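Field log, afternoon session.

UNIT: design team B
ACTIVITY: writing a sequence onto a fixed backbone
BACKBONE:
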């Protein structure tokens, strides 16, 4: 029998079969049409709905007496569900439908002559078995304002209400998931079938091998992936099966619909991502446990941009459903964060009240109100003073802490604990905890859940960040500067002069000179307009940027410089200045630049001009850039911000908070960019290396947060090469006819489109980089330009010839802009292909393309360092030492302490050692026992044991591992612990090593073994 790739056979029919196994009753299209009165304008299965409303709605009058809803009220209930305010907008109608489904509708019933009000529920959320579940296919629905029909592939009904809609595509189609999502979006347009989708809480797009989910009114870029450990007793053969089981089985579908849908700001409908869902589940489970009368709390680390505020809002709703009479307090440390999260919490079906003083906070906590209380953390100090020795001891108080600047982990945490000794504290953070904060995290109750940056990038919940460093060259006339300083400091004593000079050097005044600001403003203007400004047709890209400056005065100077250049529009957002500054005469206007600027802005836009400007920035094309100092570096969320220009020193979590402004997902946004003018690369590296791993998470999981632009550019030669290889058999290059003939084969054509797309995207990043501009050979750059021109024309020709609809729209405008701006420009870099350093011949051939011993030395160092990084865990002591030798040699070369030839000779030796993994530090006994060598190096580097003891230890460790290893042993905790125990036992018993040192050494050996002894 020939395999079929028909949509119904490979995707739709298996989905229907599994859904029936999960508890859905199948209705064929004819049966479904009959149940809605034979009208394709109807979307509810009214016969089923009518029957279910009678069965699940039996109001209880007393412990022994019940009643039923009248037939009139049942019909009124159906009418109320159908009567949705579509004229007020799609999202408003969706919200009304959602509230009807989750809250029900109240109707009056006449009971023994008395009228009483009872709530008619459409779904029994508490008793799943009381509901009925149906599934149908090809559900034909008449479009609004048309006689035409749309037919969703599969619709799931709960009590006759369409709660979930699926589109199934063949896996061999081009971008099947994207096509399925597009169909959902088309169906929800004004002339589509919104009257069906308005009831749906879950949408799925599947193609057997892949799937994504969303809720209604979700843009394509926000459709999400779902990840969950396999626990089903039913055999799940594909990713489509996993999504159907994880999201559509009746109990999960009702849970998601009721508890994990939220309407944000009345404009957006959102459904939980998997990390939000499982975090809330873990938290609810945690708070059910008590420790000395107090509910257990903890820390939730969900990386910035992954929906932390929505997680808190959904959690608040879930707490109200789970805990009797809870009091929820939301604590932030800044007014703007308080306002932002208050707006979000306003959508969780409970009132939100803001405590603006400590006294008000106490009153709200003592009151019987079920409102969520929001406050700023320093209001707790007043609350402590008022309460004195009479704290609030309820264990149903929940404090949700949104940490903006970590103040909650310090002394303020003590104040909260004093006011609310039995409260449950749940701290939410978007950046990792510093190592010194780890013990404080334990005081909260430890880590409950973590969602790392790499996970978010992999799930496309955020975009990766590309870093590029730039430098404004400055020449200092030192003699003139010294003379000026001497003149200014002449009246001072020697000590005072020295003190003044010290303070002068710390002030960074040289970085605030007008010439430097002008040059950087010009560079930013050029960079932004070239990459995200107007295209050839005059259309705006829609993307935005931020400029981070050192202080308010410098921010105003940048604003003036940008205005003078005139290429980009800018506005300044900063806290209000002290209006006492800059006043010298009662009859004159103030002279301080910041105060003058502020007064002009107030005169032009009014007192609340900052709110107005931020609103403009988010909702219109104006301005292109926001110039900031401190404000908006934390908590500001505008997905269109694609680039941040850093012109001030940022450190620690403040740095990570700031640069995360560019990692939000937006249509057409592949990366976020950090352009660094201040040299923060060291601070960035330190921030990544000094943050704790949050319980079981290793620091390695924080690596890769930033994609160095050099690494992206390094991919370019290989991407160009694989694209060229498609046509390597064609004798006459640039012969379009021959190329078109080859591309008649659909498989080759698809391969060409994909490789061209990858090459084009990488080339776009390259041309936006100053590193590439300054260091790329003219020959190479010209070659890339010829190729991109030729392949663009070829692609367009092929699309027309074979009627291929390749989704290249998000790249075409950028590519056209790139060609217009750069094709006639001459740049200089050197051309080198990527090649493995293990391939000696190919590597030497690559080096021949590089001119000069210095360039060869730098290239060898770069490639060898990359190899060392990839293999470091196999022999950490050896590779770390080798890496340090390479770095020292390069430093000596750049400082002219060593000749180019001498450096090249040394680096070739180091490369040889990296490849062969052999050094001069290994005793003869072990030289042919490769697996023992890393253990020998580990113990030699950490102890003062005799060489023969170290040799014996290495051999013994190798034997212990080989004795106990089994298939996939690094994933089996019991085997890992056993190996660790026996190595430690040998160290303690035979080598007399102290217990704590033995534990550390054993752990190091096991980590190396996990890499080297995979089985």
């Amino acid at each position: 029998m020939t395999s079929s790739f028909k949509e119904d056979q490979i995707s739709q029919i298996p989905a229907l079969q599994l859904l029936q196994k999960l508890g859905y009753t199948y209705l064929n299209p004819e049966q479904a049409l009959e149940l809605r009165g034979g009208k394709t304008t109807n979307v509810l299965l009214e016969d089923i709905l009518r029957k279910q409303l009678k069965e699940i709605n039996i109001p209880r009058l007393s412990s022994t007496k019940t009643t039923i809803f009248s037939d009139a009220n049942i019909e009124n209930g159906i009418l109320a569900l159908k009567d949705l305010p579509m004229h007020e907008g799609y999202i408003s109608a969706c919200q009304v439908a959602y509230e009807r489904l989750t809250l029900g509708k109240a109707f009056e019933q006449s009971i023994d002559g008395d009228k009483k009000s009872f709530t008619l529920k459409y779904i029994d959320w508490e008793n799943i078995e009381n509901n009925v579940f149906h599934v149908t296919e090809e559900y034909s629905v008449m479009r609004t304002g048309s006689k035409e029909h749309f037919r969703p592939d599969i619709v799931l009904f709960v009590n006759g209400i369409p709660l979930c809609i699926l589109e199934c595509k063949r896996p061999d189609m081009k971008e099947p998931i994207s096509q399925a999502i597009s169909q959902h979006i088309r169906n929800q347009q004004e002339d589509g079938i919104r009257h069906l989708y308005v009831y749906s809480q879950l949408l799925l797009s599947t193609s057997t091998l892949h799937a994504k989910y969303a809720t209604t009114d979700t843009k394509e870029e926000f459709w999400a992936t779902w990840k969950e450990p396999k626990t089903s007793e039913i055999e799940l053969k594909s990713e489509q099966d996993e999504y159907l089981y994880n999201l559509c089985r009746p109990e999960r579908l009702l849970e998601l619909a009721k508890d994990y849908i939220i309407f944000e700001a009345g404009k957006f409908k959102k459904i939980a991502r998997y990390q939000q869902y499982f975090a809330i589940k873990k938290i609810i489970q945690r708070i059910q446990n008590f420790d000395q009368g107090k509910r257990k709390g903890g820390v939730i680390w969900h990386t910035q941009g992954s929906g932390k505020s929505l997680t808190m809002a959904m959690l608040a709703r879930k707490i109200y459903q789970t805990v009797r009479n809870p009091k929820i307090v939301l604590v932030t440390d800044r007014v703007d964060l308080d306002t932002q999260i208050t707006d979000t919490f306003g959508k969780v079906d409970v009132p939100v009240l803001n405590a603006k003083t400590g006294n008000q906070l106490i009153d709200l906590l003592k009151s019987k109100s079920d409102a969520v209380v929001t406050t700023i953390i320093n209001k707790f100090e007043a609350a402590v003073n008022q309460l004195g020795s009479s704290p609030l001891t309820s264990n149903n108080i929940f404090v949700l802490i949104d940490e903006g600047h970590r103040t909650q982990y310090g002394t303020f945490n003590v104040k909260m604990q004093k006011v609310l000794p039995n409260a449950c504290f749940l701290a939410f953070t978007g950046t990792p905890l510093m190592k010194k904060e780890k013990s404080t995290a334990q005081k909260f109750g430890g880590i409950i859940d973590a969602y790392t940056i790499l996970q978010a990038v992999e799930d496309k919940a955020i975009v990766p960040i590309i870093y590029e460093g730039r430098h404004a060259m400055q020449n200092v006339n030192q003699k003139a500067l010294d003379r000026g300083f001497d003149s200014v400091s002449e009246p001072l004593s020697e000590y005072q002069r020295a003190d003044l000079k010290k303070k002068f050097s710390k002030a960074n005044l040289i970085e605030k000179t007008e010439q430097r600001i002008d040059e950087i403003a010009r560079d930013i203007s050029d960079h932004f307009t070239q990459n995200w400004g107007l295209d050839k047709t005059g259309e705006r890209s829609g993307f935005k940027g931020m400029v981070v400056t050192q202080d308010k005065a410098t921010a105003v100077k940048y604003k003036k410089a940008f205005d003078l250049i005139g290429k980009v529009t800018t506005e300044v957002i900063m806290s209000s200045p002290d209006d006492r500054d800059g006043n010298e005469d009662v009859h004159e206007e103030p002279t301080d630049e910041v105060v003058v600027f502020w007064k002009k802005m107030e005169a032009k836009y009014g007192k609340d001009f900052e709110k107005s400007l931020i609103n403009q920035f988010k909702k219109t094309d104006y301005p292109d850039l926001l110039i900031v100092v401190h404000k908006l570096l934390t908590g500001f969320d505008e997905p269109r911000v694609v680039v941040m220009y850093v012109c001030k020193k940022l450190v620690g979590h403040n740095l990570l908070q700031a640069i995360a402004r560019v990692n939000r997902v937006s249509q057409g946004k592949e990366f976020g960019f950090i352009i660094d003018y201040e040299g923060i690369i060291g601070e960035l590296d330190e921030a990544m290396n000094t943050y704790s791993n949050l319980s079981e998470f290793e620091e390695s999981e924080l690596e890769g947060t930033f994609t160095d632009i050099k690494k992206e550019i390094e991919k370019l030669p290989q991407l160009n090469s694989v694209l060229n290889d498609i046509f390597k058999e064609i004798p006459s290059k640039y012969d379009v006819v021959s190329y078109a003939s080859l591309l008649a084969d659909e498989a080759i054509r698809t391969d060409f489109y994909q490789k061209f797309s990858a090459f084009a995207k990488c080339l776009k990043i390259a041309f936006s980089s100053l590193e590439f501009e300054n260091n790329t050979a003219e020959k190479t750059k010209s070659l890339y330009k010829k190729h991109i021109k030729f392949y663009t024309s070829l692609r367009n020709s092929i699309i027309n010839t074979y009627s291929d609809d390749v989704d290249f729209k998000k790249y075409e405008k950028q590519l056209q802009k790139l060609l217009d701006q750069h094709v006639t420009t001459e740049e200089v870099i050197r051309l080198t292909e990527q090649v493995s350093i293990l391939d000696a011949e190919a590597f030497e051939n690559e080096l021949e393309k590089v001119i000069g011993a210095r360039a060869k030395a730098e290239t060898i160092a770069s490639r060898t360092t990359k190899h060392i990084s990839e293999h470091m865990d196999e022999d950490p002591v050896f590779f770390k030492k080798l890496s340090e030798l390479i770095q020292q040699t390069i430093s000596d070369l750049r400082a002219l302490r060593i000749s180019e030839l001498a450096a090249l000779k040394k680096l070739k030796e180091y490369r040889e050692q990296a490849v062969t993994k052999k050094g001069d530090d290994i005793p003869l006994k072990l030289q042919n026992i490769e697996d023992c060598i890393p253990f020998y190096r580990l113990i030699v580097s950490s102890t003062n044991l005799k060489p023969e003891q170290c040799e014996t230890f290495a051999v013994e460790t190798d034997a212990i591992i080989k004795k106990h290893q089994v298939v996939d042993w690094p994933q089996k905790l019991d085997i890992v612990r056993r190996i660790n125990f026996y190595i430690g036992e040998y160290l303690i018993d035979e080598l007399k090593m102290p217990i704590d040192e033995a534990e550390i050494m054993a752990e190091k050996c096991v980590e190396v073994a996990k890499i080297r002894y995979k089985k």
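LOG NOTE: The first helix runs from residue 7 to 21.
NEXT ACTIVITY: expression trials, pending approval
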